[in-house]
Amino acid sequence: MKSGKLQKKVKSRNKLLTIYFVIGGMFLITFFIIYTNIVIRNIKKDVRIVPDLYSKFLGLPSDVNMEHFLFQYFMDEIIPEIDYPIILVDSLHSPFSWENLDIPKKEFENLEPDDQKKLSDLMKEMKADNSVIPLKFSKTDEKIYSYVYFGDSDTLKQIKLMPYVGMGLIFTFIILGIYGIVNIKRSERNILWVGLAKETAHQFGTPLSSLAGWLNVLSSKLGKQAKDKEIREILDHMDSDLDRLNKIASRFGKVGSIIKNQKCNLHNIIKETIEHFRLQYPISKISIRFESEIETNEIELDPDLIKWTLENIIKNSLDAMQMKEGVILIKAFNKKHKTFIHVGDQGVGMPKSMFKSIFHPGATSKKRGWGLGLSLAKRIVEDYHHGKIQVVESTVDKGTTIEIMLPEE
Fold first, then answer.
1. What pLDDT does 405 receive?
2. What's the rounded Cα separation, in Å, for the pair 406 and 91?
3. CATH number at residue 322
4. Cβ(204)–Cβ(244) under 8 Å?
5. DSSP code for 1
6. Predicted local distance difference test score (pLDDT) of residue 401
7. Residue 63 lies in a domain
């Protein structure tokens, strides 16, 4: 993907994030307004029963049967309107009627023992929750004609649920917003990576073409002298180094591009990489050894990028060993339809707390360098080959083993 496309993509995501916060904020405000109005309307509906009952009491004659009146009022006026469990009991707390309960409407004495227990337990819960109303003719009247036990109405349930619904929506809103911001930051880092890589490849291109031309001119100017063994060897080395610089430029050019993997011989890739280091460090006290237990040599990958990955890991091992005597052991093997490459050194090692951070850009213990090698290796393995790279073992002053996992499918 070109850096221009990435920039457009990030701008688009920035706009979407802004829209998300604006619309999301408006949605939350609208939701709370509507929810609050519904609850208030339901509360008004529930409260209307009280003044209605009071007005009925004021109009009663003095010789009326109060228990009969209260029972009839509840049955005709209140019961049809309620949506919560309610139990009517006499002055001795003996139930004689109930609504909105999964209990047959019979005389309490005729109920099954389980239903009697269920009703009694529910009354205890309502009493413990202070959900009991004694019914009197007036405040000054000491006689209690009956009691009303009641549970939570839909309105009360809505009120109780409101903080949890609100907090849930706000929490979800914030989490999605943070995810969007992190995603945009990641895209911005991708632009930096891709832009830097593309610019590096571009800057390499012109002088490399020029060097190739000058090398041809030099060969032609030397004429017969170019056939001299020593001069020919120098020219070959120059040509080899020039070819390697072209490969490095090509690698940087692939960063951010769509890569088409191909079937390659992993044995040969690892051996070629090792040979490169043997030529580069001919008098080094460090030996690089390769062991293989791969059942099939063919695996789908980008050979140049995998070489780059191995080179970065081996360079890291060489730095960790500080050019002292020791062995860098590379193992390749199959396990559960996956190919693994282990690169182990006898270097300074690291604590477990650094196992993940060494793959972050800028993580380095060297006085020089940007600490991009292992970060590049991680991107190549995980982004382009859908594999995984990690530190599987490390002990301070004993060494480190880094694992590359490549899927075979």
1. 94
2. 80
3. 3.30.565.10
4. no
5. -
6. 95
7. no
